[in-house]
Amino acid sequence: MAFEDLLGDPVIQKYLHELVGPTGMPVAAAPPDGEVTDEELAEDMGLELNDVRRALFILYENDLASYRRVRDEDSGWLTYLWTFHYENIPENLEEEMHRLLEGLDRRRSYESDHQFYLCEVDSIRFEFEEAMEFGFECPECGSPLESMENSRLVEAMEWRIDQLRDELNVERDEAEAEA
């Protein structure tokens, strides 16, 4: 898939934005063909060199860019020549989705396996054991703690987990074995 096709996808745009932030997005959104130096990118885009370097190293850490060092024989200075590898984005996104699935599955289990109490004044949530330690009174304001129903939250998590499993083609048993 060409850079242009990938960068036209709003999901990929959001992914890149989450990685490099708003100051690094111009670098991520306009990858040149072939090798380029960080100085060339900064000059061409009118950006601060440090912002360009920060974005490049974040892309490097996520296997979306690589560099080659070249030493100037006269001055001894190192020049970094950067190449973008956006063909790795789909695989990276799939790994992110697997991490999200595992995290949601753990959180769903936690929400299902615990009983919660809420201070409606301060909007502080306590597990049953904590609420019992405080005599079912909020330690902040002293108001009574009310039993909290979280079945809608658990149902929403289960719905999202099912969506992710379908999208990733992961069976329930496989996902639970990973957790």
TrEMBL record:
One of its GO terms (molecular function) is DNA binding. One of its GO terms (biological process) is DNA-templated transcription initiation. Keywords: DNA-binding, Transcription, Transcription regulation. Transcription factor that plays a role in the activation of archaeal genes transcribed by RNA polymerase. Facilitates transcription initiation by enhancing TATA-box recognition by TATA-box-binding protein (Tbp), and transcription factor B (Tfb) and RNA polymerase recruitment. Not absolutely required for transcription in vitro, but particularly important in cases where Tbp or Tfb function is not optimal. It dynamically alters the nucleic acid-binding properties of RNA polymerases by stabilizing the initiation complex and destabilizing elongation complexes. PANTHER family: GENERAL TRANSCRIPTION FACTOR IIE SUBUNIT 1, TRANSCRIPTION INITIATION FACTOR IIE, ALPHA SUBUNIT. HAMAP family: TFE_arch. Monomer. Interaction with RNA polymerase subunits RpoF and RpoE is necessary for Tfe stimulatory transcription activity. Able to interact with Tbp and RNA polymerase in the absence of DNA promoter. Interacts both with the preinitiation and elongation complexes. The winged helix domain is involved in binding to DNA in the preinitiation complex. This is Transcription factor E. It comes from Halobaculum litoreum.
